[in-house]
Structures are given as structure tokens and as C-alpha cells.
């Protein structure tokens, strides 16, 4: 932590937000075994600290606390829950800079991105502070005059959440605040690489007045993570599982949740197409490519993964993109000024990206720029532009999760849509066009839960976030997100004279 820039005079430091304990029932606790594991900075591999390496027994205990707390929390008024969330939102903004420093230290993204994420995460706290008071039931008109038909909306129960490392703040608030607003209690297992952001949020939630046991965080290493996840899925006290991560892991969690018939939200992998038609504004399309492909060094599930460019504008687009990448992308430690490309999360991520690039080159792709590991350290990879890419290459089939832009060529609209849809993923898709008829056609034909038209970054608190096909189940964010934590109860009142 010594390498994290200090706070402004009189302000709370990031180091003060770094908790080396888990958070259960309003208390900072260790693993029952006493085991811990180290958390490192991906930029320089420096050890930031340790956290408890919790197992299935620790997780079971946290779930029991959450279940007991639910019996009272579910009876609080919507206004009470709203007020607490509002205070949490205000505290998050107050400590925005220090929370951002934690993200940069444990995840590596540049400070500008981290600060943006904290602001984005805070918006979900604010949003659900408002949505808490908008959970309305219904009165249904009955065909029998002696009956009254009611629909009540009630909190589902204990919600367990497994969150990712690429957005260690915002992915927690998007999930947990919807559940808490609905009257549920929460147990979170943050990604093993980024536990400190989750724990810092717990501190602020407690300061805002969230009662003990409503929000609980269990930390675990990669070795214990499968046991923790399985315990959450198989516990009869848990009624909801929310997961963001790989499709392969999501399928495991779905199978484990089947015996107890849990409601699940699965935000899984993507393979986003990014289509540039010949009617597009090229400058706008190139700018959108930079935001969509290279945000978070390409480590998001909605990153442009397959960039499809019409043959008439292919060479011009390639030239403009290369020039923009050279001019605008700067690789380095997230705390350095002007850096906008941080490290990948670990060495395995670098190895995967390199193997995907090597596969493309071996099959005929041309490296326009990059294609190599960075010179800043072991986890850095240079922004890469590949031309002459074809669908038989791994980058045409797999989620890259790194700063590699593979450019495909197409001839017709039908061909582009067919390539875009030829995947089991269906999270986000993008296309650029100024032809209004084409915009309507393609927006409707793309088999994705979210579509950006002339926009490369589309996530916002007001809009639903979720995919189709093997990219997942359920919705996060927006007015629809809170429904994932609500059960409908039909009440038939008879004997009305």
C-alpha cells in the first residue's frame, strides 16, 4: 500500500479503507481456520496485504447469519431501506478518490477508469434507493363479485452473489443494492484478485446505517472458490444466486443450484460483434472502437471482440484506427498520469492473449501494430491491431479479454449479420450506419440482449443489462433489475359481500 498515492490533507486514505478481514454480521472476522492469502498489484506484483481464505464452513456460517437477519430486514419499510441506501450513496461519493485508488491498486486499471467506475457504482446505490419505494403490487379485476384478487411483491430471501474482478465496485452495487432495496439480505464472494473494494463498500454501508447481517462478504482464494460457490448454490437457506463471470463457471453454478430450484441471474461471457457498414461515419466508428475495445484494456464482457468492416471502407478504417491507437493509447501503471491502458489481471491472462494472437498470425492474420507483451512488466500487453482476420481463427470464436482488435472484412449486410450471430454468446453487439432502414433491420436481426447503434459504450444505470443464448439469464440495472429479487404472491380474498 505504500506505493498508493496519499490522500489529500485531512481526507481518509485508501490504506484506511483496506481491510484484511472478511465482513459478516457487521463484524470484521477471520477464517475459522485462520488461513489467509495475499492480494497483489497486477502492475508490479507488489503485495498489498492479506485477506481470510474462507471455506465452505465459513460460507455456511455467513449464510445462516443472513437468513436470520432476513427475518427482520424483510419487514422494514421501503422508506427505511431507501434512506439507508441514499446515505450509502452520499458516503461513496465523499470517498470517491480513495475507493478509486483501491481499484487501481488491486485490479490495475488507470485512475481515470477507476474513478469513473466508483461514480458508476454509486449511481446504482442511488438508483435503487429510489426504486425501493417503487415496488408496487396489483389489484386484479375479478369475474366473481365476492372476491378481490391481489398480487403482492415480496423479497425473495437470502441472495448470494459471486462478483468479478474487472469491475470490483460497480458489479457489487448493481447486484447488492437491488437486493437490499427489495428487502433481501446478501452474502457476497468477491473475486479473489479484488477483495478490498468489496470490503471498503461494507465499511461505508455500515456507516450509512445498514444493520448487521444484511450485507456480508466472504473472501477466498482461487483454491477455495469452488467450495464457496457450491455451498452457496446448494444451501437450502439461499433462494437466489447472482453470478458474473465465465460461461463455463456459470453452467457449473446452474447445475449446483438445480437441486434446490434456486432463482438465478447469470451474466456470462460475450463475443461482441462490432460492425462498420459502408454508410458509417468512419471517424465516429473509429472513436467508438477505441472506447468499446480498449476500455479496461479489453477486459470486459461487452468489449468489441470481432470487428467487422465493409470491404469498401476496410483499408481506410484500418489506417484511421491504427493512427488513433498510436496517438491515444498509453500503456503503464494505473497511477501514472495520462495512462489509459493498465495491465492485464495476471500472467495467465497475458498468456491467453498471446496464444490467441499467435494463432491468428499462424493462420494468415497480419499484425498492424502490437502483438507482443509490454515492456512495463509481466502483466502488460501492448494494444494490438490485426488485419486480414478470418472466422476460422480463435479470435473469431473466443472471447479475447485483452487489448487485441481483430478486423474482419465483409461484403454484404446479410453476411455481416450471419457472422455476428454465429456464436453461442449473445450479450452485446454494436454496429455503425447512417442508413435508417438498415439501422432498424440490423438492430432487430442481431441476436444480442444489448445493441449499440453508433455507440461503442452503452452501459448505464437506467438501462437493462443482460444477454441471451449462453450469455446468461436475468437482468441487472434499470427498473427491471429489482424484479430479480422479488417474488410475486397471489392473494384471493373471498367472502366479500
UniProtKB/TrEMBL annotation:
- This entry's Enzyme Commission designation comes to 1.2.1.24
Q: Which Gene3D superfamilies match?
A: Aldehyde Dehydrogenase, Chain A, domain 1, Aldehyde Dehydrogenase, Chain A, domain 2
Which Pfam families has this protein been placed in?
A: Aldedh
- Which GO terms are recorded in the biological process aspect for this UniProt protein? gamma-aminobutyric acid catabolic process
Quickly give the catalysed reaction.
Answer: succinate semialdehyde + NAD(+) + H2O = succinate + NADH + 2 H(+)
Alphabetized, the UniProt keywords read: Mitochondrion, NAD, Oxidoreductase
* Catalytic site positions: 267
Q: In which pathway does it act?
A: Amino-acid degradation; 4-aminobutanoate degradation
Which cellular compartments is it found in?
Mitochondrion
InterPro entries hit by this protein: Ald_DH/histidinol_DH, Ald_DH_C, Ald_DH_CS_CYS, Ald_DH_CS_GLU, Ald_DH_N, Aldehyde_DH_dom, Aldehyde_DH_Superfamily, Succ_semiAld_DH
Q: Which GO terms describe its molecular function?
A: succinate-semialdehyde dehydrogenase (NAD+) activity
**Residue limits of the Aldehyde dehydrogenase domain?**
28-491
Enzyme kind, highest EC tier: oxidoreductase
Function as written in the Swiss-Prot or TrEMBL entry: Catalyzes one step in the degradation of the inhibitory neurotransmitter gamma-aminobutyric acid (GABA).
Q: Fill in the subunit field for this protein.
A: Homotetramer.
Family note: Belongs to the aldehyde dehydrogenase family.
| UniProt name for this protein | Succinate-semialdehyde dehydrogenase
Organism (species): Lottia gigantea
Amino acid at each position: 500500500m505504500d506505493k498508493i498515492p496519499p490522500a489529500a490533507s485531512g481526507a481518509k486514505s485508501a490504506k484506511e479503507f483496506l481491510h484484511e478481514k472478511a465482513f459478516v454480521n457487521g463484524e470484521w472476522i477471520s477464517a475459522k481456520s485462520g488461513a489467509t492469502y495475499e492480494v497483489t498489484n497486477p502492475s508490479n506484483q507488489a503485495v498489498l496485504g492479506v485477506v481470510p481464505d474462507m471455506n465452505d464452513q465459513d460460507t455456511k456460517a455467513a449464510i445462516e447469519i443472513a437468513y436470520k437477519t432476513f427475518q427482520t430486514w424483510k419487514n422494514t419499510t421501503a422508506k427505511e431501506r431507501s434512506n439507508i441506501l441514499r446515505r450509502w450513496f452520499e458516503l461513496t461519493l465523499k470517498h470517491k478518490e480513495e475507493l478509486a485508488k483501491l481499484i487501481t491498486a488491486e485490479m490495475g486499471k488507470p485512475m481515470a477508469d477507476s474513478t469513473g467506475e466508483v461514480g458508476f457504482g454509486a449511481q446504482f446505490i442511488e438508483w435503487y434507493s429510489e426504486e425501493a419505494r417503487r415496488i408496487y403490487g396489483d389489484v386484479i379485476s375479478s369475474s366473481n363479485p365476492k372476491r378481490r384478487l391481489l398480487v403482492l411483491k415480496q423479497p425473495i430471501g437470502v441472495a448470494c452473489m459471486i462478483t468479478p474482478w474487472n469491475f470490483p465496485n460497480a458489479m457489487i452495487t448493481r447486484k447488492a443494492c437491488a437486493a437490499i432495496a427489495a428487502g433481501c439480505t446478501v452474502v457476497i464472494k468477491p473475486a479473489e484478485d479484488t477483495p478490498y473494494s468489496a470490503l471498503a463498500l461494507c465499511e461505508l454501508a455500515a456507516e450509512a446505517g445498514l444493520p448487521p447481517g444484511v450485507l456480508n462478504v466472504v473472501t477466498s482464494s482461487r483454491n477455495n472458490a469452488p467450495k464457496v460457490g457450491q455451498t452457496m448454490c446448494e444451501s437450502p437457506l439461499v433462494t437466489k444466486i447472482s453470478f458474473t463471470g465465465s460461461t463455463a463457471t456459470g453452467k457449473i453454478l446452474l447445475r449446483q443450484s438445480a437441486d434446490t430450484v434456486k432463482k438465478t441471474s447469470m451474466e456470462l461471457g460475450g463475443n461482441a460483434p462490432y460492425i462498420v457498414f459502408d454508410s458509417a461515419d468512419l471517424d465516429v466508428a473509429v472513436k467508438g472502437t477505441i472506447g468499446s475495445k480498449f476500455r479496461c484494456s479489453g477486459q470486459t464482457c461487452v468489449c468489441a471482440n470481432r470487428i467487422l468492416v465493409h470491404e469498401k471502407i476496410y483499408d481506410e478504417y484500418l489506417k484511421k484506427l491504427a493512427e488513433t491507437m498510436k496517438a491515444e493509447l498509453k500503456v503503464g501503471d494505473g497511477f501514472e498520469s495520462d495512462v489509459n491502458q493498465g495491465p492485464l489481471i495476471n500472467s495467465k491472462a497475458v498468456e491467453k492473449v498471446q496464444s490467441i494472437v499467435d494463432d491468428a498470425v499462424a493462420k494468415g492474420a497480419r499484425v498492424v501494430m502490437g502483438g507482443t507483451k509490454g515492456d512495463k512488466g509481466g502483466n502488460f500487453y501492448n494494444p494490438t491491431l490485426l488485419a486480414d482476420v478470418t472466422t476460422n481463427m480463435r479470435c473469431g470464436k473466443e472471447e479475447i479479454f485483452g487489448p487485441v482488435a481483430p478486423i474482419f472484412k465483409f461484403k454484404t449486410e446479410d453476411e455481416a449479420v450471419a457472422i455476428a450471430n454465429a456464436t453461442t454468446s449473445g450479450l452485446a453487439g454494436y454496429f455503425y450506419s447512417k442508413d435508417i432502414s438498415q439501422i432498424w433491420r440490423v438492430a432487430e436481426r442481431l441476436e444480442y440482449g444489448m445493441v449499440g447503434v453508433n455507440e461503442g459504450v452503452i452501459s448505464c444505470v437506467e438501462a437493462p443489462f443482460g444477454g441471451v443464448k449462453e450469455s446468461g439469464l436475468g437482468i441487472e440495472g434499470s427498473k427491471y433489475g429489482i424484479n430479480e429479487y422479488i417474488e410475486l404472491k397471489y392473494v384471493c380474498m373471498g367472502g366479500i359481500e
